[in-house]
Specification:
Rossmann fold; 11 helices; single chain; 5-stranded parallel beta sheet; 7-stranded parallel beta sheet
Length: 333
């Protein structure tokens, strides 16, 4: 499309909040053929997106931050290639993409960063790192609280897939008693990882000192942790969610934090992202929160954007790589 003096293709990088998309990978193989434009803000307003992306042939979107339903894809007649980081994406209408002549490709993605962030949040909660650091640097009291122990305490995992199993092994290394539950989890799988199978979700919540969520979002997992489930947890227990926001009922979590029904929560995912400045979670007590950093690391970004370049090269050569297809149900994690 670019030979013989024809215009270069235009490629939009969405949600490039840190403005690193154009430098996280080597885009020089596409020089002269593809013009790359980064958008450092976020919008999921369909009218705004339709206007913003109308002049682009290629779009690179991160994770599942921006939905691409049929109603949007139908308004992007110039779009020919949509690249999503990772090899699964539940917010793209694949049938509509195919109907509009849009090829959808993915990239590789490491599950190590969300495992590490899970433990960052869990350890930060257990030892009150934010409060202690704030007091020390601000001239406040020396030693404000008493930390929670990990060794000998129970870690309850909701989900034991790729990420959950790695979190489990770190817990075992700390000397924790690790149990796991999910609707289809078997004793064979827990034996393979070296943890115990909880007889029920309710027993896991009631007996665990730390609960960490590692489930894919689906009809059975949406709202899995609500007010009734939070009420089962010990007042000394902590909840960590680096998976999907909709798995934990956020109003119920807010109420539990304000009432002190649990000791605290570590949250990386939210119902609304970016989180509005006035959102009540920004000022909730007993909360350690991060702005959806689970997959945001240098190595992962190098993979996302580096393989996006490869996807574009392959598409231009007529042999698309890592083509995604619709899945009848969520893929296992």
């Amino acid at each position: 499309m670019t030979g013989g003096g024809r215009r270069p293709l235009r490629c939009a990088l969405l949600d490039d909040f840190q403005n690193v998309g154009s430098t996280a990978a080597d885009w020089s193989p596409l020089a002269g053929r593809v013009e790359v434009v980064a958008f450092t803000d976020h919008t999921d307003d369909e009218d705004v997106l339709a206007g913003r992306l109308a002049g682009f042939d290629i779009v690179v979107t991160l994770r599942e931050r921006v939905p691409f339903p049929a109603s949007l894809l139908d308004r992007l007649p110039r779009l020919r290639l949509l690249i999503a980081s990772g090899m699964r994406n539940s917010v793209i209408d694949y049938e509509a993409a195919a109907r509009n002549g849009v090829t959808v490709c993915g990239t590789g993605s490491s599950s190590t960063p969300p495992v590490e962030l899970t433990w960052t949040l869990l350890l930060g909660l257990a030892r009150g790192l934010v409060q202690e650091n704030t007091a020390l640097r601000g001239g406040g009291p020396w030693q404000q609280g008493v930390g929670a122990d990990l060794h000998g305490r129970r870690l309850g995992l909701l989900g034991l897939g790729k990420i959950g199993s790695r979190v489990a092994r770190v817990g075992l290394a700390f000397g924790m008693d690790v149990v796991a539950w999910s609707p289809n989890l078997t004793g064979e799988r827990t034996d393979e990882v070296g943890v115990a199978l909880a007889p029920s979700k309710e027993e896991l919540l009631a007996s665990s000192d730390f609960v960490s969520v590692h489930l894919a979002l689906g009809e059975r997992s949406r709202g899995l942790i609500g007010a009734a489930e939070l009420a089962l947890m010990r007042p000394t227990a902590y909840l960590v969610n680096t998976s999907r926001a909709a798995i934990v009922d956020q109003p119920a979590l807010l109420e539990a934090l304000h009432a002190g029904r649990i000791a605290g929560a570590g949250i990386d995912v939210f119902d609304i992202e970016p989180l509005p400045a006035e959102h009540p979670l920004r000022t909730a007590p007993r909360l350690l929160a991060t702005p959806h950093l689970g997959y945001v690391t240098r190595s992962n970004y190098a993979t996302y954007y580096g393989e996006a370049v490869e996807d574009i090269q392959a598409f231009l050569a007529g042999s698309p790589l890592r083509v995604l297809h619709p899945h009848p149900r969520p893929l296992p994690r």
